[in-house]
């Protein structure tokens, strides 16, 4: 099915069967159903296989350094709150190299959606253990198996009272699409951790494995932070769905420049004479 977000003659550098394709298509469908226009949409990423996503979709995009997508996305949103800003990168980029930014972006609560392609391995660099790799996961580098406990992004996000926390599986098209739509519509920092098989470098966490080791939460109270944290700590099977939602002011709403007007900064015109007078008034010579 064609989409207004399609690009022609794009050479997509993902392996056949990669879960990135599913997320790519699901995102386009979600944006279509939300009536988002490409000109009003910014996709931000870091480095990695998932981070190539902005180059394969019709949009404005910022492709930054490894782990540094979140501060760029926050700045873009605060400069123009009218934009739909989505971050799309992998578990290594967001939770590993970008772990510090992950923590503090959640605390600031900018109105951005963060889609994390969680394949539990570093794919771009050919198969090393990532922050979310399971303990004992054997790679060409971790030859006797990963020794660290896997990073739990949902538990960390919930401990910081992230305003929207969800988990999806790219093999479930409809469910993942609806979760992404809710995340985009939410006002605040929205985290969607998306299980996504790496068919080349992770032979353990396959499509079959994710299907057999996950379940969708039913009758879950999305306002109950304690219950959400309890669910996030479950390991076998792993719960899917929306864990927690909290409505509160966003980072942009706290900014002084938007107290009197919501007009984006780039559209504002300033009296340069007044600016010069202000600068002169602060001179010490």
Strand line-up across the major sheet: 2-1-3-4-6-5-8-7
Q: Tell me roughly what share of residues is in helical segments.
A: 25-40%
Number of strands: 8
- Measured by DSSP, the beta-strand proportion falls in 15-25%
Bulk shape: globular
Question: Helices and strands, in N-to-C order?
Answer: HEEHEHHEHEHEHEHEH
What are the low-pLDDT stretches, counting only 5+ consecutive residues below 50?
A: none
> What is the makeup of the main sheet?
8 strands, mixed
Q: Rounded to an integer, what's the Rg over CA atoms? A: 20 Å
**Mean pLDDT value:** 94
Q: How many DSSP H or I helices?
A: 9
Structural class: alpha/beta
Break the fold down into its secondary structure elements and pairings.
Blueprint: H1 19-33, E1 41-45, E2 60-63, H2 69-79, E3 84-90, H3 91-97, H4 99-108, E4 113-118, H5 153-159, E5 164-169, H6 173-185, E6 190-195, H7 207-212, E7 214-216, H8 225-232, E8 238-245, H9 272-281
Parallel strand pairs: 1-2, 1-3, 3-4, 4-6, 5-6, 7-8
Antiparallel strand pairs: 5-8
Helix pairs in contact: 1-6, 3-4, 5-8
